[in-house]
C-alpha cells in the first residue's frame, strides 16, 4: 500500500495505514522498523509478514523519522511522536492506546 511516497507492508487495509489488527478511526500511523527499513502499520503486521524478529529503535536515535502519518503521508521523528502523540505536520491525532505498546517499538 502506498502512503505518500512510502510503501507500507503487512496486512494494510486502507491508504491511511489501518491494518487487519488496528482499524479504528485513530489508527493512522505506520512505523519504520530499524531491522529491515520497512514500514508496517503495527508490530503484529511485522511479525506475520517479515521473516525475522522485530528490533526496537535504540534510545539514542530519537531523531529518526520513523513514524508515518496515514492522513497526510508525512513523517515525524520518534521524539516528536513520543512528545505529542500526534502528527508533527498535520496535527492528526493518533490512537493513545499505542503507548501501551511503545516498548515493542522503542527501547
Ligand atoms: Zn524488520
Ligand atoms: Zn497490523
Ligand atoms: Zn499528518
From TrEMBL:
Gene Ontology annotations of biological process type: protein import into mitochondrial intermembrane space
Keyword presence, Lipoprotein: no
GO function term, MF aspect, one: zinc ion binding
Location of the CHY-type domain: 12-92
UniProt keyword terms in alphabetical order: Metal-binding, Zinc, Zinc-finger
Matching PANTHER family: HELPER OF TIM PROTEIN 13 (PTHR28082:SF1), ZINC FINGER PROTEIN (PTHR28082)
Protein name: CHY-type domain-containing protein
